[in-house]
Amino acid sequence: MPPQTFDSYEEFWPYYVAMHSRAATRWIHLAGTLTGLAVSAYGLARGRRRYALALPLIGYGTAWPAHFLIEKNNPATFGNPAWSLRGDAQMIRMMLAGRDDELARTAAEWLAENR
Question: Is residue 12 over pLDDT 60?
């Protein structure tokens, strides 16, 4: 798929979700992000600032292989880092709110229209 360009986050969002079309990818993102947050928070609470590195290391360290191995695509972060970070937060909030089915529908609709 050629690189995508977007004029707004709202235009980017369905693409971002489509790059996470498989539930396993979304759940690996959630697990990596929450684990990274927990380790970072623990370290910071203990006065160990280097633990703040756990969030990007664990978060990206689990998410990126999921793209290569499960989705067979490149992470959206490579082309749109700020919007991808925002998208990850939105995706995780939706999953924690029990809205994973909505994410699956958004991904399927975007892929049907753009492949």
Answer: yes
